Amino acid sequence: MAIRTLVWNEFVHERENEVVRKIYPDGIHAVIAAALAGEADMDVATATLDQPEHGLSRARLNATDVLLWWGHKVHGEVSDAVVERVADRVHQGMGLIVLHSGHFAKIFKRLMGTPCSLRWREAGERERLWAINRSHPIVQGVGPSIELPNAEMYGEPFLVPEPMETVFISWFEGGEVLRSGLTYQRGAGRIFYFRPGHETYPIYHNPEIQTVLRNAVRWAYNPIGWPEVAAAPNVPVERAPEKIEAKGAALHQAGEAGYR
Amino acid sequence: MAIRTLVWNEFVHERENEVVRKIYPDGIHAVIAAALAGEADMDVATATLDQPEHGLSRARLNATDVLLWWGHKVHGEVSDAVVERVADRVHQGMGLIVLHSGHFAKIFKRLMGTPCSLRWREAGERERLWAINRSHPIVQGVGPSIELPNAEMYGEPFLVPEPMETVFISWFEGGEVLRSGLTYQRGAGRIFYFRPGHETYPIYHNPEIQTVLRNAVRWAYNPIGWPEVAAAPNVPVERAPEKIEAKGAALHQAGEAGYR
Amino acid sequence: MAIRTLVWNEFVHERENEVVRKIYPDGIHAVIAAALAGEADMDVATATLDQPEHGLSRARLNATDVLLWWGHKVHGEVSDAVVERVADRVHQGMGLIVLHSGHFAKIFKRLMGTPCSLRWREAGERERLWAINRSHPIVQGVGPSIELPNAEMYGEPFLVPEPMETVFISWFEGGEVLRSGLTYQRGAGRIFYFRPGHETYPIYHNPEIQTVLRNAVRWAYNPIGWPEVAAAPNVPVERAPEKIEAKGAALHQAGEAGYR
Amino acid sequence: MAIRTLVWNEFVHERENEVVRKIYPDGIHAVIAAALAGEADMDVATATLDQPEHGLSRARLNATDVLLWWGHKVHGEVSDAVVERVADRVHQGMGLIVLHSGHFAKIFKRLMGTPCSLRWREAGERERLWAINRSHPIVQGVGPSIELPNAEMYGEPFLVPEPMETVFISWFEGGEVLRSGLTYQRGAGRIFYFRPGHETYPIYHNPEIQTVLRNAVRWAYNPIGWPEVAAAPNVPVERAPEKIEAKGAALHQAGEAGYR
Questions:
Q1: What pTM, to 2 d.p., does this model score?
Q2: Has the ipTM of the complex gone over 0.95?
């Protein structure tokens, strides 16, 4: 069964900015979706901020295996209810790939629990992403490093938790570095942050970047869902694995739900 | 300089429930504060939900080095603004010790990014906490394990991120286990989750539990603050560490702040 | 292509001890191999200590994708050269599953860098392994926990590095706990330590344990080899990604290998 | 009580190479020791390869809290017995700071369990080490980054396990990056790998590098020793925390030691 992949885009800069429109006339999501759509093991669709519920209804999310997230200018316009819904689905097993300026997306900050801040400079400088583990599935099909002639700089300190794996580290012409490919597991969901993508450069047209995105979708796909991941079931005394008898005082009546 | 330690309590069950009141007539916070107050290197105060801003004004938090958090019945009554404020201070370096039912406190879920769910049973059964690393500062002064004659059971799966360190694992009479002492770093802040504490048993009167709390305050104290942890400063071309010249198109005007 | 799976056994207790022989008349390796052999995606073979090079020649290891390791009584008789050879292959991408008493095998200590010590008791007590992440591939097809009526106890502290993931934690009837399923990545190789298996009980005949072993083989299989993982190539000035000129004094002549 | 700090050096290049001798006429260890010796909380001594037992007798190691390790040309001449002895002491709680080319020292490979390989170039290029967490004790007293005008390049992939914390990442003029400050915990011992130090440049005379070394000694110091860290004690049935009775067959006689 194919990986049901959804590419989400706030879709603002492509409409407002002439430079961005020339590079992504149909939106960044269209180019990313096209890069994935040729794969036999992926069913690819897109969604944008201006759709009802931002195109992220519960039904749609339940039918999504991996979500790619692009946002930059209007993070604040994403509804908190949708953010919680996406977070729930990640905990239940949906993969999430957060792109570039998405480091400040509500959903990324929600899942990281940290400020996700970093230093930045928009100077079109050269970036080189080094693969840290050549055997990682996300770096297959690209060389020891990926070179981008023009990129926005993001520099350390990058305020995220220590990752499960550091997959890429970027070198910048102007003298900075960034951990630019990072993996996390949150509940049943796998998360990959991938830095490249500033919209005034044709980064998602780059074949190596497209290869990484395809790899990342496959890596983030967890076929094993966990719908009840957030449940906090009571295990009554009579169903305890070992035979015990209740002792002492209790706050709860039998069968009562716990506090949240 | 002493560690400015603040013990926070929602302070509800002690007022409503006769069993709890007998064990903690002045509130759980009072017993915990007393356990810490004798230490020469700690300045100890308390705060409760019913105070203005829950006793957690920005000024108060700025003057706090380590915060201990007790909540159980009314997590939902803690204001979201205060939760964000506490999270900010943790990122800036304030230590946080989350106790027992605080696994479902807004502030803990906010910092973990996961559901923080678990299985539970209130049967007064025996618990034994095993120290995983005998050389960890948090387990000093107690034996290889701590035995509690009566405890509420919390069982795996416990939906938190993989910790920096697993400090304690609990064995329960009824057959379950839990990772019951876990450390995390988020920004400049150190976080310790410590499971014991159900309020119908005199757990915070236990000398070994008190020893762990004292150790945990010292461990969580980071004397190095990072007030600007959430800033995302622009580094203009002329201040790049290496001499570069701006190339290509740009979204931002010089001096403009980035998007959030 | 099938996963080339090799089950290694020191094969001593089954020959010397009447109790063990009755449970494993053809050796523990035979029962484990049979549990894997029915899988369409696995090619299963066995090797034992008494074979030339312990059945682990370089050619054989090069043709192995996942190695399962059983040893208990004669860890010291495994040749150091073979241990280094196995470690090399793990770094290059061969998966390794270390079983039960293999916690003290030379190869496990070699890859962990720690004493791998733990507390133990041989009393035939009940063990219950709790799955920590219900969405992990290794725990599929078994319930929330696996119960073994008779097991040797292994108790914390277990002196291994913090794992990538804690997959199982064991509860023991006698009151102890152990992190009994742990994952590690070392170079390109994935390592899974799995505790159950004491040879005086029919543990590898247990269908749930067999399911875990099959899952673990698939999890540990990394199709992406990294043969040159231990190389330390010189990158001469003229092949530096950025154009630079050599400055200052040097220890090495051009083209010289580095020190090891 | 002062931190008993021992600076170890193979002390070869300073004797054989004119360039190195000019920078470190009394040896690299002498300069590092001098950088530490002024601190009120440190007792500093040195040891070298050519001394009996390389200056690392068991008595000496038992009286050492933190060991700094410099080696480059003759890693192979360090006796395996001494390496095991140092590893034992790290497990028991001695801190270890591994410098520069020590990535290939036997003791570092022993504790990491990986090849510790990397790419390299000796061209005197510029290096800039970025602090990843500004609140980490190891980076106090230095700026957001440390700049070295001339350095040997070490480039990713660096074949070590995922660290507890990435403390520094280096940018190199020639286009590479390296995780150049990494922390690990192994048993009771804290380990810090710190990259700078090529001996044809005066790197250990740099005040910022000296500040990091002083910080690292304090960070690596664990006042809590664990002498019996490698013991594997039997817990007989009658001393089990819970009352149980032995069931089933056993390999071991009562009181017998376990296999190793």
A1: 0.97
A2: yes
